[in-house]
Write a structure and sequence with these properties.
The complex is a heterodimer of chains A (98) and B (473). Chain A has 98 residues and is mainly alpha-helical. Chain A is built from 4 helices and no strands. The N and C termini of chain A lie far apart (66 Å). In chain B, strand 4, helix 16 and strand 5 form a beta-alpha-beta unit. The chains are: A mainly alpha (98), B alpha/beta (473).
Amino acid sequence: MVGELLIAVYVFVLAMFIGFEVITKVPTLLHTPLMSGSNAISGISIVGALVIAGRVDSPLGTALGVIAVVLATINVVGGFLVTDRMLSMFKRAPDDGK
Amino acid sequence: MTPQPALEGALRADLIAIAYLIASVLFILGLKFLSSPRTARRGNRLAATGMLIAVLATLLDRNIISFQWIAVGLVIGAIAGASMALAVRMTAMPQMVALLNGFGGAASALVATAEFFRLEMHPDLTVTTDVAVSVMLALLIGAITFSGSIVAFGKLQEVITGRAVTFPFQKTFNALLFLAVLASMVYLVISFEHEWVFLVFVGLALLLGVLLVIPIGGADMPVVISLLNSYSGMAGAAAGFVLRNNALIISGALVGASGIILTQIMCRAMNRSLTNVLFGAFGAQAGAAVAGPVGDRTVRSVQPEDVAVMLAFARSVIIVPGYGLAVAQAQHTVRELASLLEKKGVDVKYAIHPVAGRMPGHMNVLLAEADVPYTQLFEMDQINREFERADVALVVGANDVTNPAARSDPSSPLYGMPILNVDQAKNVVVIKRSMAAGFAGIDNPLYYLERTAMLFGDAKKMLNALVTEVPNV
């Protein structure tokens, strides 16, 4: 049996490779939305924050969890929304087809 | 008793794991769709859907007993995040991203903190070395990301000086601080107790984040936010190791990779190594004197009317925008001028240098906001061959990225930096306030070329004058 830790390391290394492959194909045109969008993805720590805020083991734990949920939610909601707002501005020539 | 609850628990855990897998796949697809502006928006929505699935699945977790505080946190965060996203100006995007990076880092650090206290308060729980290491790493990276991002935000927002802040023995001090952080970390990993050591560790890590960013000048901020972006991903991945959560590990790794790539691109575009950016304290003295001889060389100063004629009779015009254009809030005016020229049959393109804005790709967003179609935006490598065929290159608010000395003069501090080959155009028009040197304080030989015409004045005023003059030609 391969240890739990080693599996996690496997996942991490392979995901890094996928990341490099996928992201080198993003044109510089979209690098700002890439940053804000990937930023929103890094707000995935919300998943950990939710469990800590909800498990009620100690008041300190809950407090830390709630703050983490707030910050991670700002990260996620703000990141995806602002990326969408930016991407909606990228248009092909609007005068096309006239 | 039936084994029902255990079975149900295992089923739930499997369901959650499957949901995380779906979320991870959606993140990867989302990033993949960002490879074209046509599919990018859909990609972002896919990634957001993935996040929603991950959040909803997490709420099924058996460990979650109370939803009250979760709801409070989600509502506050969603309202704050949405209002920030809707209110932010596109010029302020670097600050926004810096702030969001910081929040992401802080969230990861808080998760690790909560995990430390939980394990520390329950001595019956065994803490394996790898969990201890993961907790401390998530904290260290998260804390550095948080305080570093807040400083970067402050610099970009001009709450604190954009200059490189230096003090005597800075590097020695930072090195000692780093050793202290490392020592407390090793102690905590081995003993995993003593709250005060933990708090000292957190404090030192936060201080380290501040000290790593203050010696970096405002012009180097694109590199710093890219790097912090990468850190926020790494912090998330480390938190994933703490919780043994593959969704966190995968997303963290994706973002970490993205940040590393962007950091490399920015460094290459500025012809600097990452070490030089981080520790070089570039731009400690702002407004250095003009270097190099100005001497007997003369510049040709022209009026808007002359430029209007030149532009209107050109077949092809390449506009070279720099951050000065955004500072003057002249993106819309430049777009207006381009439309007028297009009506006269002029082929208009924009040449975008990688460091034209304050963060990777920033100038593209600023121009897209001004309704410039992205089909007219060209990156450096695509457009550089076309300059020699262009009738006019119109430089607005850009300086160092057009400096031909970077190509030809080994003694120039810019030598080796990739530039836009503006000097190869048949005619060059530079809109510039005065002959003051660029940010790096380096003279630009482009201005003394025979084919270069200088249009002195505020970018917006001069562009407005051109918008008035062009229809009269």
